[in-house]
Amino acid sequence: MATYDLEEQERIDGLKSWWDVYGTLVIIIVATFVAGVSGTQAWKYYQKQQSDQTVELFNSLQVIDESGDSGKTRDAARLLTDGFPDSGYASRAALISARASIDAKDIKNAKEPLEWMLGNSKESELKDVARLRLAGLLLDEKKHDEALKLLENKHSESFDSLYADLKGDIYADKGSTLEARAAYKMAMNKTDKKETRYKIIQMKLDALKK
Question: Could you give the angle at which helices 2-65 and 88-103 cross, rounded to 10 degrees?
Fold first, then answer.
């Protein structure tokens, strides 16, 4: 029995010595693990809360937009672009805001969300849309060179026809007939002949010949 007690005591003393050397490290590792698990859960909860809130705001924006009040639509959209700029809903809210202002003939406030998209959106195709609409507004303001420069930016191939068509409109409005004709021809080459837009571009090209 005494031998057993001695062996037990030696084992206990050995554990104490080991703990003196490694105990602090063990505590740090365990604490880090627990904090990591808790932190991950907290982050997931935060992300879900953020996601739920952006969905609610976007749904509210759509309801407000149906009222036809461009000012209220613009304010609602800003809640998303200012509060949740990294959310995909923010770029879509900006497009809705721009369209509402365009419908209200408010070019200044229509340009702002489109410019925001070009600087903040992470979706290339949405930026292509924003660039196209902004160039159209610049055309309305007779800022031909600014509009053309904007359309020179790299864009998705699916937008080739639309970009070339708008370039034709800008050149035609500017009085640069040769450039307008070349742009319209390029747009037609990128458009399915069965599309109604193909016939519209053809009409604009024919009008240049008169």
Answer: 10
Report the predicted TM-score, pTM, of the whole model to 2 decimal places. 0.73
CB-based contact 155:120 (threshold 8 Å) = no
Q: Which residues contact 12 (CB under 8 A, 6 or more apart)?
A: none
Taking only the tens place, the pLDDT of each residue in 18-66 is 556 555 655 666 666 656 655 555 445 445 555 567 788 888 888 888 8
User: Would you call 84 helix, strand, or coil by DSSP?
Assistant: coil
One-letter amino acid at 199 equals: K
Cα torsion through 174, 175, 177, 180, rounded to 10: 10
The neighbour count for residue 108, using CB atoms within 10 Å, is 9
CA nearest neighbour of 173 among 133, 129, 207: 207
What's the half-sphere exposure (Cβ side, CA atoms, 13 Å) at 55? 6
